[in-house]
């Protein structure tokens, strides 16, 4: 029971960190005054790549924990 609670708390904390990072990154994603469309697209692509990496890391960690505790 206690191990399940710790796992759940770790997963919630990891998800909260990823969501906070994504919100922070989205707030910085505003087109600058000079060449707004080009820089906006570049920033958007980098943000999407970073979010994909974070989600992959989070899902792989959850998968590892699920596999470990399923034994």
Structure description:
The chain has 2 helices and no strands. By secondary structure, it is mainly alpha-helical. The chain has one domain. The longest helix is centred in the last third of the chain and has 35 residues, at 36-70. The mean pLDDT is 72.
Question: How many helices does DSSP assign?
Answer: 2
Please state the structural category.
mainly alpha
Q: What is the residue-averaged pLDDT?
A: 72
The termini sit apart by 16 Å
In short:
This protein is an all-alpha fold and 71 residues long. The protein has two helices and no strands. Helix 1 (2-28) packs antiparallel against helix 2.
Q: What attributes does this structure have?
A:
71 residues; 2 helices
Give a topology summary:
Blueprint: H1 2-28, H2 36-70
Helix pairs in contact: 1-2
């Amino acid at each position: 029971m206690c191990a399940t609670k710790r796992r759940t708390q770790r997963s919630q904390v990891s998800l909260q960190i990823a969501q906070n990072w994504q919100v922070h990154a989205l707030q910085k994603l505003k087109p600058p005054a000079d060449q707004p469309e080009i820089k906006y697209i570049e920033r958007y692509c980098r943000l999407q790549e970073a979010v994909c990496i974070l989600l992959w890391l989070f899902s792989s960690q959850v998968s590892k924990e699920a596999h470990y505790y399923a034994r």
